[in-house]
Amino acid sequence: MRIVSSSSRCGGGAASSLPFVAFHRFLTSRRGRGIIIASKAKLSDSSAKRAKLSARKKERIKLPSYINEDGSDKMYHISEFLSHPSGVETILNTNALQSFQSLGSNTYRCTLPQIQLMKFEVAPTLHLRVASTDEGCLVEMLSCKFEGSEVVEKQNEHFSASMTNHITWCTIDSESFLDVDVQLNLTLEVYTKPFSMLPISTVESPGNLMMQALVDRLVPLLLQQLLQDYDNWVSQQSADNSRKISL
Questions:
Q1: 37-49: b (≥16 Cβ within 10 Å) or e
Q2: Which of 85, 102, 110, 141 is the most exposed place for a label (fewest CB within 10 A)?
């Protein structure tokens, strides 16, 4: 779906749909996750119409209990995994990134694979800061920019985005659960014809429906992959501990 189109000889319409396409690509990647808080980028000071798109989904899943050889359970809590480097890579979805670089102070530079849109190539680049505690896990997006040609990078002035996923855990009647609350917001300037001449609802209504469908698809995949990586990590930790004991 192209939110904005244009007859401009510079291809402005194709470029102006890049923010929406970038989030679509990230959310629908095989291991896509949305454990992110994105600070809003500064929109241009133009008087263009602004379409505000949003979607939200909450879900809860039961956490497995792991039994140690001595019979004790809950050997490796989910909080330990999410604060471990393997857990950080899981929530940052590093397997779906073009590049991944630690900048120190729990901050990371993540570049998504290039997106090809007509004659444009764009590489979304995110600066993320991870915050893991005993009660939850949060990632803050410090910046989100598109890198490419001058036309592509100009689009950084015409959108702002926020995508949050607050992960927490709790125990109810001796059973452990993981709670996920995903919210996605995207503001686009509608500054090209014919969409600038139409009611803003012609962009927001279909855009909201598509974004909700993306989030509804994302959350179950997020939980499934997170639990799989958690299980693999527990198995690896148990094997490492067994080797240490046998030495």
A1: bbeebebeeeebb
A2: 85
Mean pLDDT of 157-176: 83
Close Cβ partners of 245 (under 8 Å, ≥ 6 residues apart): none
Strand partners, 122: 115, 148
Give the separation between CA 158 and CA 139, rounded to whole angstroms: 24
Q: Model confidence over 82-112: pLDDT tens digits?
A: 989 999 888 888 888 888 899 988 889 988 8
Q: Are 128 and 36 in contact (CB under 8 A)?
A: yes
Three-state SS string over 56-116 comes to EEEEEEECCCCECCCCCECCCCHHHHHHCHHHHHHHCCHHHCCEEEEEECCEEEEECCCEE
Whether the Cβ atoms of residue 96 and residue 27 lie closer than 8 Å to each other:
no
Structure tokens at 66: 């792991």
The H or E element that residue 176 is part of is strand 175-190
